[in-house]
Design goal:
The structure is a homodimer. Chain A is mainly α. The first copy, chain A, folds into two domains: 19-82, Winged helix-like DNA-binding domain superfamily/Winged helix DNA-binding domain (Arc Repressor Mutant, subunit A); 88-129. The first copy, chain A, is 52% helix and 7% strand. Chain A has helices spanning 19-32, 45-52, 56-68, 88-112, 117-129; strands at 41-42, 72-75, 79-82. In chain A, strands 1-3-2 form a three-stranded antiparallel beta sheet. In chain A, strand 2 and strand 3 (79-82) form a beta hairpin. Chains A and B meet through helix 4 and helix 5 of A and helix 1, helix 4 and helix 5 of B. The structure holds a DNA duplex.
DNA sequence: TGACAATCATACAATTAGTACAATTCTGAG
DNA sequence: CTCAGAATTGTACTAATTGTATGATTGTCA
């Protein structure tokens, strides 16, 4: 049993602070502290759970909250990864630029495929509307 | 032994979009965009898999879906080819599917960055309007 | 003791990888 | 020229790895 220090977390089981909160906090700290860099894959829920001697659902819960907080990205069947997160002030300044770049990228591709402005904005409208329901990947 | 970019695909392993979907979407785009012409042989599942550093079954899955969609023709023992002439209805469907995929890609990214629906569609509107003028300065 | 949050157990779903196989093409001995 | 066998290509099925969903259990505290 080689104890590989996948991710070094110090849990206090008697602190009264829920485990999943402790996990969440410490990962957040390590991310903002630069210990965990963008695109780094975190241990799987099972691996981390084994290392911490807790149920993997507890880890999953922490991961889910971190995902909702935009710190990490969890993907079924693939794994969990740190998300690039720009500093707060820079983020605000860059936000609209980022969205603009995204929009222009979309428009550029669509234009290249000879779609009209009407088609482009119509599809955008439709997909925005049906986003929640059709979260499933577009398979068909 | 420079790895020739047989088929230039850009995979994002952390986007949340499955690899096989990304492969499928991008090939669809290149076909409907005219980058990949009829009768062109695509890389073999193994070659493309090696280039993308994924399992060849992942590529095979994308190929199979594209085959079922009538975009390509996969032939055991021979290879994979762009369909000579996509049936009109397939082409039409393909075009709209492609646009849909593009739109969802944009929305997905924007959502991930916590932009609201309003912001997303507003930016789209604005960029569509200013597309022509700003194109001169943004030629690739 | 009862309510509620935290944790755990179990079953499930999605994605990718592994292995064996079948169809086709290529190659070279005869 | 022919044909056996290797090489190449896609296919099918299965296994492994990952996160998800849901309900049961446990523990704490008013």
């Amino acid at each position: 049993m080689n104890d590989k220090p996948i991710l070094s977390l110090r849990l206090d089981f008697h602190s009264g602070l829920p485990i999943y909160i402790q996990i969440m906090n410490q990962i957040e700290q390590q991310v903002s502290g630069g210990v965990l860099k963008a695109d780094t894959q975190l241990p799987t829920v099972r691996a981390l759970a084994a290392e911490l001697r807790v149920n993997f659902n507890t880890v999953a819960r922490a991961y889910r909250l971190l995902d909702e907080a935009g710190v990490i990205s969890t993907q079924q069947g693939r794994g969990t990864y740190i998300i690039e997160k720009p500093p707060p002030e820079v983020e605000k300044k860059l936000r609209s630029q980022t969205l603009e770049a995204l929009a222009r990228q979309y428009i550029g591709e669509a234009k290249r495929l000879k779609f009209s402005d009407a088609e482009i904005s119509q599809m955008m409208k439709a997909q925005l509307k049906s986003w929640e329901e059709t979260q499933e990947t577009n398979l068909e």
